# Entry
Amino acid sequence: MNFSRTVCLSGWTAAIAVLACAPARTSPVPAHPPFPADYRCVPFHDARYSDGAQTIPGRVQNEYYDRLDGSVDVQKGGVEEGQCYHDTDNANSGSGALNGTGTYENEFRMFESPDVSFVKLGHAGVAIDDSPYNLVKPDSNALYLGWIAPGEWVRYTVNVTRDGWYSITTAYTSKFGGHVSLDVNGVDATGPLTIPSTYASADTVEWRQAHHWNRISGLGRVHLFAGKQLITLHFLDQPVMNFDYMEFVPSGAP
# Structure
């Protein structure tokens, strides 16, 4: 029968042995609090989308931030402000003001303050979301969260199917770059995450600096426990960002 033995060595030999035999260091698993019992908002749903909480691992669509069940008048009154989201004004600069009415995309969440628009390809005249300055091609008609100002945030009730660390991939535009962060059940879980700028000096159409699409993987890592979790996406320090989605991919610890 073989038994393992601890061998005591001295000098440099001992130091090397300790380093060689020491277990690999891993990031400690954070102890997030439980889902807040007093949270009133619910996963987004409408006549087209009724799948409930978005699932992780998987893609969380940024335009599907949580909502309160209520009438259009309730939404117009901004009752969701400070509960489901925080926005700097009580007007939707995308679906409500820019796009007009007539289609699902044009009218999407038009009475809520977070500003939502959609990807426009093949636009007559000046190209919008399919200009030569894109780093990746966005999906046609994809809804996205835009007109972002520092200090704004949105919340997502998600269903995590298994414990673990997740790497974050996002599709976005950002004129100035900047930072975002994620809370889990009200506690910071990532610290500031760097968003690279998509500014292109060669593009002389100034407003289009907000429409140079990019996709980055490894934006950051977050640990999530299985079950219902509340994720809050914070926009920390720069304006002029558009966010299509966050994809949570199982990964090793950071």
